[in-house]
Amino acid sequence: MHGPAMSGWLLMALCATTGAYCLLRTRGESGEGRRTARAEALMGFGMAAMALPAAVMTPPTWAWGVYAALFGAASLRALWFSRRSRHHLHHLVGSSAMVYMALTMAPGGGSAHGGHTGHGAAATAGGVPLLTGLLLAYYAVYVLRSGARLIPVAATTTAGGGGGPAGSAWAMRPELALACRLTMGMAMFAMLLTL
User: Fold this and answer.
1) Which has the closest alpha carbon to 4: 56, 45, 43, 42?
2) Greatest CA span in the chain, whole angstroms?
3) d(CA 19, CA 14)
4) How much of the chain is in helix, strand and coil states, percent to nearest 5?
5) pLDDT digits (tens, 9 = 90+) for 97-139
């Protein structure tokens, strides 16, 4: 009965928490690490805003254009920095996927907000199936790969015995950064499923 609204709230809370953690990571990082943490914080907060259930607040029609412009700029930024780091290619895919979802979720652009498909034009409901399928496949592989990378890092950290030097910031733990990336990948996959 309350499935779509409840899942929207849970997705929003998960993405907002992940965005907040990534924002905390920017304080302890420098250079490339800080840029990566900022990009991930933007993705987390943007995904949280898009996941807000439509029953609570229907965004104004201009909001979807703002999302598309914001993540379009983030895509260009990720493209620029991808010449230094391959991880920014993932940010490029993520930002581009957010532009695609914003355009698809906009009134008249495909499906309605919050996964309530069927309210838009029948021919365009869900966006472009091939592109949605490719993005779903990308995020499925990304989630599986991130999950596999998380296991050895956690095992190595606990095998160290000391858990790091005294006074080390919990925000700088590599397994938490990997867990956030895994979380955002799963959230993106879930959001793409609603198209």
Assistant:
1) 56
2) 59
3) 9
4) 75, 0, 25
5) 999 999 998 887 655 444 443 333 333 456 789 999 999 999 9
- Residue 71 tokens read as 């993540």
The residues spanned by each domain of the chain are 3-193
Measured CA to CA, the distance from residue 35 to residue 52 in angstroms comes to: 26
Kindly list the averaged pLDDT for each block of 10 residues, start to end, along the chain of length 195.
70 93 85 85 92 80 92 93 83 94 82 41 62 95 90 53 46 79 93 88
- Cα–Cα distance, 178 to 135 (Å, whole number): 20
Concatenating the DSSP letter of every residue in 50-94 gives HHS-TTT-PPPHHHHHHHHHHHHHHHHHHHHHTTT-THHHHHHHH
Question: CB burial class (10 A; 0-12, 13-18, 19+) of residue 129?
Answer: exposed
What sign results for the dihedral spanned by CA atoms 93, 98, 188, 84? positive
Query: Kind and range of the H or E element at 138?
Result: helix 129-159
Question: What are 172's two structure tokens?
Answer: 């700088």
Which of 74, 68, 107 lies closest to 90, judged by CA? 74
Q: Are 100 and 126 in contact (CB under 8 A)?
A: no
